[in-house]
Structures are given as C-alpha cells and as structure tokens.
From TrEMBL:
Protein known as: Aldo/keto reductase
Species assigned in the record: Streptomyces cadmiisoli
Location of the NADP-dependent oxidoreductase domain: 20-328
SUPFAM superfamilies, per the entry: NAD(P)-linked oxidoreductase
Pfam families: Aldo_ket_red
Amino acid sequence: METTETTRTLGNSGMRIIALGFGCWAVGGEWQDADGQPLGWGKVDDEESVRAIRRALDLGVTFFDTADTYGAGHSERVLGRALGKRRDDVVVATKWGNVFDEDTRTLTGSDDSPAYARRALTASLRRLGTDHVDLYQLHLSDADPVRAAELRDACEEFVSEGLIRAYAWSTDDPERAAVFAAGEHCAAVQHRLNVLQDAPEMLALCERAGLAGINRSPLAMGLLTGRRPAGRPLAAGDIRSNPPAWLPGFTAGAGADPEWLGRVDALKEVLTSGGRTLAQGALAWIWARSPRTVPIPGFRTVRQAEENAGAMDRGPLTAGQSAEIDRILGR
Ligand SMILES: NC(=O)c1ccc[n+]([C@@H]2O[C@H](COP(=O)([O-])OP(=O)(O)OC[C@H]3O[C@@H](n4cnc5c(N)ncnc54)[C@H](OP(=O)(O)O)[C@@H]3O)[C@@H](O)[C@H]2O)c1
C-alpha cells in the first residue's frame, strides 16, 4: 500500500521508492575471509531466494540492496536473475570496495582506488545483467576521508557517463558520510538503525544534507523477529555463529545474547500493537523515527518476504508508541 508515510525520495536524485528495501546479503550464500571466518548467513536455496524477490516485487517493493562481495558475486547474480525484465521497475543499490575471489568465495582484501571502483562497477553491471546501477555505495565503512573524496569524484564521473544514477557511503560515521554528502549526486547514506541501536547523529545529518538514510540491520540481524531463542547456536557458515567484534547481540557457540533478547521482550507489547508481528513492529519504529528512513531487512524465504513487506500495510508507529519505547529503554 503506497501512502505518503511509506514512500521516500532518494536525496535529490528524483528516484522515488516505497520506504522499504530488501537486503540481499543472506541470499548470497556462504563466503568467508582468508582465515575461514564465515561472512555469509550460511547455506541458501537460490530458487527460494528468486521466489522471495519476485514475491517482494508483487507486494510493491521497489528497492533492493546488495553488494558485489555478498557470496563473492553470487547475491548480485541471483538478484539480476530474479528481477529479469522487471529490472527497470526497481531501484538497485550495490556496493564496492572489498576485493574477493569468486571461485573460492573468499574475501581477500580491500581497494580504495578510483581505478578499482571502475573495475568493480563494470563487474557488478555484468553480474546484475544491467547497464546502470541506481545507487552505488562505498562499502568500506572506515575508509580514509581524503581517499573517499577521490572516490566521490569518481562516482560523479560514473553519473555523467550514465553508469550510475546516484551514490552513497555505507558508514556509521557522520563525518565520513558528510564527505560524500558534499557531492552533487550523493543521494543517501547507508547506516545501521534499529530500535535497539539508534543513530541520532546520522539521522540529523540526513536531515541537514537532504539525504535518505538506508537502514541496515533493521531487525538487529534477526534478534528483533522473536525467532532467535537464547542458547541455540547458529549453524556453522553463518556469520552470527562466530560473530566478529562489530556484531553485538550474538555469542560464539551460544547464539542470541540473553540480555539483548530481554530488551526485545520488554518492547514486545508496543511493537506488536495493532496486529503487527515483532519484525513488522521493528520496521514501523524505523518509519516513525524519521521521514528519511528506508529500512532494508534481510530475508531468505518467501515467508519472510511476505511478513516484512506486510509491515507497509500498517505504516509507522505513533509518536506515543515511540515515546513509550524510549521510556522502556531508558533513553
Ligand atoms: N556494511 C554494510 O553495508 C551492510 C552491513 C550489514 C547489512 N547490510 C545490508 O542490510 C541488509 C539487512 O541487514 P542485516 O542483514 O544486517 O540484518 P537484518 O535485516 O537486521 O536481519 C535479517 C535477518 O533476520 C531474519 N529475518 C528477516 N525477516 C524475518 C522475519 N520476517 N521473520 C523471522 N526472521 C526474519 C533472517 O535471518 P534468519 O532467518 O537466518 O534468522 C534475515 O536474514 C543486508 O541484507 C544488507 O543488504 C549492509
């Protein structure tokens, strides 16, 4: 259902989308770093991924976020295949900056040079089966700001060549995001935002600079769905089974952290008001948080796609409900 509360314009790009994107990290399947640390979400069924993406399209989702590195190229291929002739009906966002080996599905390093950005873009276009990327995003969250300014200029060249329509930086640092925001065709910043992990400074930057906030981990990597009980380890090959330092809320070998689940439990009544599921309530909180937000929940099944797209039917939480959540969390 399209309402003014659930549609967004990406910066000044003119691209108008439903305020819900689908995040395609998990559908990339398994990949790892050179030490064997899993970087994907475990095994996936590509046919189910394709069905889930097409179901999302049927339910009105018009924005998909992926990265060249998810599944070492696999996520882009699956997304391109699923979109097929409907490519021009949607806004496709991908990312670059990490270097990987497609054959061994291994992350091998990173490259912040403009020359690599052009090579990475060419490869993404091929895998996605398209002639342009709508939103091209720098994936190196803590890249050097001086180098990033060069990459921003490279992105301006890509825009003038018609290879991309707009660009963004995926970072949680507002000062870095501001470096990209200075570019004419910067339309967004991708940053973490969920009801347990607020991002007031980044949202303030989005407001000041007229950017959309593309919100990753809107379900706190599954914790906000109520389907990750404490003490149940995640499958080997799932990044959450052996979480790196930047991934809180999970413990190696022990699954979801009881303290995080306790906070989810405390919010349950408010988030599930009005017939929402917990995941739908988590998305509704984000829409209520700021009119610039675009949550991009991950998914890997048709059922998850339907539940997450269904959040649009009920729109944002009320201001009173958001205030109640702040009170419960002591914010
Ligand atoms: N650096 C970056 O740029 C960066 C980093 C992180 C994410 N992202 C982007 O943001 C997207 C989303 O963030 P995220 O992957 O961190 O996590 P998320 O959206 O917070 O959580 C997604 C996970 O929650 C579970 N889930 C989703 N919908 C569900 C439902 N309705 N019911 C039950 N479980 C459900 C699924 O995992 P299970 O079924 O396995 O539990 C799913 O993979 C990614 O796909 C990616 O596109 C970007």
